[in-house]
Amino acid sequence: MQSNNGGLFCGKLALVKTSWTPLIPGRRFYACLTKDSICGFIGWVDLPMCARSKTIILGLLININTLEERCNGLVRSINMLQEQCNGLLSRNNMLDARCDALKDEGFKLKMYLCASWFMFVIVIFSI
Which residues form the GRF-type domain (predicted)? Predict the structure, then answer.
């Protein structure tokens, strides 16, 4: 393995990473574990890919990114619909409470009407 800084290594184990750049998608390489290390790039793990493999991997990456964006958009839409649903449920609960209050008020008015007719009948027949 060779370093890009003239062969200087820090002596620590290298981590195997994968490149996802458009020029070298999917190619694995060794990199120093130390952040901001003088080692930098250490070497390739595997052989270079053919042009067809690069094209296929890039197409798959684009498809994955597109699907992730669509999925994120759908999640945002679901969250927005959930908020609207919660608002509608709240409004429905408020309207149910108002409806119950109006039913109670209607029952009281019917009772007053019946009582007033009853009193009217008593007054008429007592004369």
Answer: 10-46
